[in-house]
Amino acid sequence: MIIFYFILLISSAIFAFILFQKYSFHQQKPTAEKVKQIITNFNKRFMIKNNLSEAEVEHFLAKSLERYFKNVKTQASMQGRERIDIDINQELGIEVKLSKLLKKTNERNRLLGQMDLYRSRKYINKPLMTIIAGLPADLTAPHILEVEKLLKNKEVEVILLPLYEEKII
Hints:
Elements: H1 2-26, H2 32-46, H3 54-66, E1 72-77, E2 83-88, E3 92-98, H4 105-121, E4 128-134, H5 142-153, E5 157-162
Parallel strand pairs: 3-4, 4-5
Antiparallel strand pairs: 1-2, 2-3
């Protein structure tokens, strides 16, 4: 009978160890490189469509990140009225923009200002990212490349996320 309890104890310890290892995977610290890898792989599998709104793209991306990180929040509050689109563990912030909206100069300037604000209020020494989603041709437009360069100068990681046209057969 003692042997049975001993085996049961060892089996429980092994099971707890395996669960802890799996749980600690979800507790990993978010990095820009890891987020970029997750988003890229997610988009290859699910091919996010171009007809979605910014909020819908944000939702898809947040759901894909929830599989890897704990405490993924959308529209996370900052100090004041500002909200960042996606916050991971209060350690990494992501702003999502559609390339078609960035054709307007005021939207580009707004994005640059948002990044300055987020950097100074919450993400001082933490990773900050912008995901610009749009059709592949739009992502190579001069105004998008200029915004990408300006964001990188502000130490903001940029992901250019291709969206796909819905083909009607």
